[in-house]
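Table S2 (continued). Query chain:
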Amino acid sequence: MQDQLSLTYNQKREKLLRSLIPYYSTTYGDAYLIDSLEGMNEIPANSINLVITSPPYALEFKKEYGNVNKVEYVNWMLPFVKEIYRILKDDGSFVLNIGSSYNKGIPTKSIYQYKLLISIVEEIRFHLAQEFFWYNPAKLPMPAEWVSVRRIRVKDSVEHLWWFSKTPWPKANNRRVLKPYSDDMLRLNKKKIKKVQRPSGHTINGSFNKISSGGSISPNVFEENFASDFLTFGNNSANDKYISLCKKNGIKPHPARFPEYLPEFFIKFLTDENDYVLDPFAGSNTTGFVSEKYARSWIAFENNEEYLNASRFRFE
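Corresponding output:
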């Protein structure tokens, strides 16, 4: 399969990374078996339009895909962020998915992700363009001691997605991620809205009667029905093509996969066709797969060969 993919790739376009040999290639992208710091060091400055990634979280318990202690996490992550800043174009964006963590032995939350956020803005000089929240109803009620046993905490079901930009004016177009209008909105538009002042002091005028051909503006909360209207979604798919082919070939799938609709939203929102998208912690390479679907050039870095080899199934 690798030879076939490479042939297609060589016929279609030119590589951004000439010094590295891809583990596999497709029409639009290259996946590399490499440490992401080493890989990013080979990318020219001001070359990438979007970096979207979900690095290992600073969880209390060690995971098989590798995760760093909360105390060390900020210092571990900042070198990657510095490289991301260097390789991004001036109108480029960096989207970071990161989860929360409890402190060891007590029912209180760590603030490691907020320390990282502050460091990214104040030390690296990224701008926080907007914060997003991913509601994932498939999350387990953890830590079990506090949620399921003693029952003194409720289930954590939300993760952060931070959209950073190199300048205050990154490329973005929310017309590409519009939601279908609700039935209530369509009925309201049909009845016509009269000019009225809401209790908040905002004035609603006749312009609200003009429904555009695209839909309503997406919120910054992702929910389960995201596939149909860019709103909640889980990541516990057990029978998609990637999982099925991993099982068929006796390969263990990545245990913490990106849901496809998450990178899809940001790729459509923040990039144009043929723009470059990078995932430095590619895992099962969902970002590369979605980039391929929308004709974006992509680069994936992953240092676990088993995960990278399995990610090829997405492109079969």
